[in-house]
């Protein structure tokens, strides 16, 4: 009987090979604040870079990609999942006005395929570079017997910093503020359990071609999550005081996530007619026999981020986003007038916030 780690299904040599394949892409995200390079037990960030802040607040976030990884595994395409991971984590940090500093990742797999892991980490590193985030460390772990040989899951965590005086949130929101919606790149990384269920029920495979989808089903579904961090940080610097709050539209849908960043007693009605949901949402809803409205608590329907801005600065904000290739439009207005909140979403995920709902019909 062989009592070795390899016999138990864990290949440490493959792990070392994966690290060698990813080192260059990880190192490319490092600036002068990163100490020690790649491979240490802990990633090191020189905090003297924060000495210029009067009162620096650290912002942290952690997340994963969810069951979207099942589609990546089915298509054997692994270089887009990394951007999904970074977007889900880092774009939560920018919501409070913070600049992301460092990120770490964790990949669990049934069997370690070095090239596959390197593809995932390369995608993470490229997205980190695009958002100004240093990828300072990570872990890849084989879990034979728990995960299948081709199965894996990814998670990540990041830390950012914001000057206390610049912190965004409900306290800044005022009556009459304008809601600006920013376009999503597609489904992003939420609601894929429903997507997979709909396709399975209709006998549609990820390799099938659907003209309405714009090509191969799985490839359309793997469109990576949009990265909002860089254009938003530039916007905040270019137009100080214009943005009062931001909301990342992830799990729970549009209205619930907006309600989280509104003050108690305020409300917003978002006008569905202000945008046209992309075809991927329309096709999936039609396949399910549902209306687009019935999916609003699951999918982003074309809106990936929302900004609450001062009314007299709204046009400048839209123009600034558009100039950075970020489609944006006015979708609603904050009100504090007394009203019945029946039919509104009021806060979410433990937050007691304002109220929001969608009204009207989507543009064709």
Automatic annotation (TrEMBL):
GO BP annotations of the record are: 'de novo' IMP biosynthetic process; adenine biosynthetic process
Q: What is its EC number?
A: 6.3.3.1
Reaction(s) catalysed (UniProt annotation): 2-formamido-N(1)-(5-O-phospho-beta-D-ribosyl)acetamidine + ATP = 5-amino-1-(5-phospho-beta-D-ribosyl)imidazole + ADP + phosphate + H(+)
Instruction: Report the domain of life of the source organism.
Output: Bacteria
- GO molecular function per UniProt: ATP binding; phosphoribosylamine-glycine ligase activity; phosphoribosylformylglycinamidine cyclo-ligase activity
Which residues does the UniProt record annotate as the domain PurM-like N-terminal? 57-162
Supply the alphabetized keyword list. ATP-binding, Cytoplasm, Ligase, Nucleotide-binding, Purine biosynthesis
Its GO CC terms?
A: cytosol
* InterPro entries associated with the record: PurM-like_C_dom, PurM-like_C_sf, PurM-like_N, PurM-like_N_sf, PurM_cligase
Tell me which residues make up the PurM-like C-terminal domain. 174-336
**Which one Pfam family would you cite for this protein?**
AIRS
Broad enzyme group: ligase
Compartments it resides in:
Cytoplasm
Q: Which CDD domains match?
A: PurM
- Signal peptide span: none
What sections of the sequence does the record tag as coiled-coil? none
SUPFAM superfamilies the UniProt entry points to: PurM C-terminal domain-like, PurM N-terminal domain-like
Quick one: which pathway? Purine metabolism; IMP biosynthesis via de novo pathway; 5-amino-1-(5-phospho-D-ribosyl)imidazole from N(2)-formyl-N(1)-(5-phospho-D-ribosyl)glycinamide: step 2/2
The protein's matches in HAMAP family, at most eight in alphabetical order, are given as:
AIRS
Q: Which family does it belong to?
A: Belongs to the AIR synthase family.
User: Which protein is depicted?
Assistant: Phosphoribosylformylglycinamidine cyclo-ligase
